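Recall that a protein's primary structure is simply its ordered list of amino acids. Everything else, from secondary elements to tertiary packing, is in principle encoded there. The following example makes that idea concrete.
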Amino acid sequence: MQQLKNIGIVLGVSFSVFFISFMVLAWSPPSLAPTGGNITIPINESSSTQIKIGSLEIGGVFVTDSVTKLAQGNYSSTVTIGSSSTSSDLIVNGRITSFDDVCLNNGVCLTDIQSIYDNQMLVNGAHTFGDCLSLGGTLIDDDASSMKLCKFSGGCPSGWSQYKNWTTTNPNTCTVVRCYYPGEICRQCTTGSHSFSNRATEVCYYQPAFTWGGSTCAPGCATHCGSHSGNPCHCYASVVESGCY
């Protein structure tokens, strides 16, 4: 019995010494007097200004309710929006939508650039880019002059002129219906066509039909038809787009 009592005393003293030693070794005094040395406020708390030296990645939507400044001051660097980077200070890999003007620090704004663009002259100097666009036209490069012309659907508007042979054409078939017998088709041809380019309008020819004792030309061909001697009628492709200035 006395032996068990002695063992209990030894164990109790040993545990007490171990516990006190652990507490002494684990505790260290503050390095600064209050209130210094406080833990940095987490970035998702407090209204105080905070600086994150390392990288910060956001897996969701980034929303700000005030002025947003990127790569400013001592932290100047490249701002990249998108998936790649170049040597530019701002790279946007996608569209930019602005509900107001966008200006540079030299005072030049996008509206100024648009105005300068609109006032550039087309070939031959009769109209501007803006004139073309305001009428629903499309600006087209003329490699020969290093300038632009305006493409319109159909023919050139009033006050505009055809520029060279710039056109788009569709095939056209011309037929002589009247021949020896009413309703008989005896002569016809079909033109070629081309996409918008500086090419002459396609033309094909067909012989005029004639009746006994005289000639009968296809409608619209009278000025091109001769008698029944064999002079051909002209059939022109349909012009559906025109290059104008």
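Residues 2-26 form the longest helix (25 residues). The helical segments are 2-26, 110-118, 129-134.
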